[in-house]
Amino acid sequence: MEKNIITINENSLTFEPGETILSIAQRNKIDIPTLCHLKNTTPTNTCKICLVEIKGEPDLVESCSTKAAIGMVVFSESPRVIEARKENISRMLASGNHNCAIRDFDTNDWTSFQLGVLKDDGKEDLCPAWGDCELQNLAYRYQVKTKGLPLNGCQYETERVNPFIIRDFSRCILCGRCVKACREIQVNNAIEFGYAGKDLKIIANDDAVLKDSDCVFCGECLQVCPVGALIPDKAFRDDRFKDTHAVRTTCSFCGVGCQMDLFVQDNQIVKIDGADVELPPNNASLCVKGRFGFNFVSAKDRLTQPLIKKDGKQVAASWDEALELVAQNFTAIKEKFGSDAIGVLTSARVTNEDNYVAQKFTRAVLKTNNIDHCARL
Ligand code: SF4
Ligand code: SF4
Ligand code: SF4
User: Fold this and answer.
1) What's the confidence (pLDDT) of residue 134?
2) 110: part of which helix (H) or strand (E)?
């Protein structure tokens, strides 16, 4: 019996029946770029970036939706493929307000995609996705030079009325990832493709603003948007995504234990993404609290020292004074009414480790099981 083997860029690779060329490539760390494909969802086939050449076939095919066949010979970076990719990247850049730039490999100069948007440092009128944009990255990788492209008159007004999410359809490349994320990953069904032809657009309900739709602001769409069409309203304090660094941590808001990456700039969190799509329990998804509920970390009115109530007023005290008072009162209550007269409530706004220590203290020191957490799901 013939084995399930195909060749990609001269590598012989096995495949499962029904597996797509893109999936085989990704499993084997062969980089085939795509702007619309989203892992664990059905193919959208909109961006035409993952095109590959199959030996003996007249047309290039989309690797995200073409199933492997025994003996297939595939080229993912042939001259025809690269030419087609460049053309499609250029088409996308011309389709909207892509007022950023890339560096020229040869001269190291900035090349803007559209006229009149850059100063000498290449950083005027920046798109908030600069440095974190898959389209800009591909334009750089394939050196797509569209200098002088006329602005196409894309007139969408930026939608800033929503909590957490800014929508700017003048930068939308209609890849459809947001729709897949909303409908197939989060199953919220809040957005879809609306209108047709040149008016094609992502809409919520009857083209309402997100805040007046069925959107629950989980932010899944925002995380998967490859360009600057969906951005978090608090992010990028200095408009430079690349100046942040990521810190992997566990969400403390409930017991699910979602893995997340905090993007930190000048010791401030500016954005949170769900961690790796392969990493359980959340596989890169987050809820509204985990993704957007981080303002408390640097809140200006956050308590920084203990307060003791004196004559009906909260008065600042030292830690020694506060701890002494708490210890005295706990001891007195325990002696008079027993340990179970005391209960401890912990918080989602402290770390997992703090909560662990609180339950240890409650059980081992106070000798009661009356310990609970504000988000015990
Ligand atoms: S969305 Fe990407 S390609 Fe478009 S302007 Fe912003 S950074 Fe540039
Ligand atoms: S935030 Fe969540 S619910 Fe709202 S449109 Fe995006 S994916 Fe759908
Ligand atoms: S909003 Fe973003 S994810 Fe949605 S279709 Fe436009 S570019 Fe793609």
Assistant:
1) 97
2) strand 110-112
Q: How far is the CA of 49 from the centre of ligand 2 (A)?
A: 25
**pLDDT value of position 244:** 81
Domain boundary among 194, 216, 233: 233
- Does residue 150 fall inside a structural domain? no
User: Which CATH number is 18's domain given?
Assistant: 3.10.20.740
Count the Cβ atoms, other than its own, within 10 Å of residue 217. 20
* Top mutation candidate among 91, 154, 202, 207 for ligand 3, by most atoms within 8 Å of CB: 202
308 is written with which tokens? 């003791």
Ligand 1 pocket test target in 35, 123, 125, 136 with most atoms within 8 Å of CB: 136
Q: Which atom of ligand 2 is nearest to the CA of 217?
A: 1
Model pLDDT for residues 291-324, shown as the tens digit of each residue: 999 989 999 998 999 999 999 999 999 999 999 9
Could you say which DSSP state residue 139 is in? H
Q: What torsion, rounded to 10 degrees, do the Cα atoms 150, 199, 135, 78 define? A: -90
DSSP state of 6: E
In a domain, 290, yes or no: yes
Residues of the chain with pLDDT under 50: 119, 122-124, 240
pLDDT 10s digits, 105-158: 888 888 877 655 554 554 445 788 888 899 999 999 999 977 666 656 567 888
**Which atom of ligand 1 lies nearest, measured to the CA of 139?**
3
User: For residues 96 and 152, is the Cβ–Cβ distance under 8 A?
Assistant: yes
Residues 201 and 228 reside in one and the same domain: yes
Ligand 1 pocket check for 138: Cβ under 6 Å: no
Nearest ligand atom owner, CA of 163: 2
Which residues span the domain enclosing 36?
5-77
Pocket lining: 133 vs ligand 1, CB cutoff 6 Å: yes
Residue 220 CA to ligand 2 center (angstroms) comes to 6
pTM of the model: 0.87
Q: What is the DSSP letter of 274?
A: E
Ligand 1 nearest-atom number relative to CA 227 = 1
The finding on whether 118 has its CB within 6 A of some atom of ligand 1 is: no
**In the prediction, which pLDDT does 242 show?**
58
pLDDT of residue 18: 95
Residues 196 and 240 in one domain: no
Number of compact structural domains in the chain: 5
8 A C-beta contact, residue 28 and residue 167: no
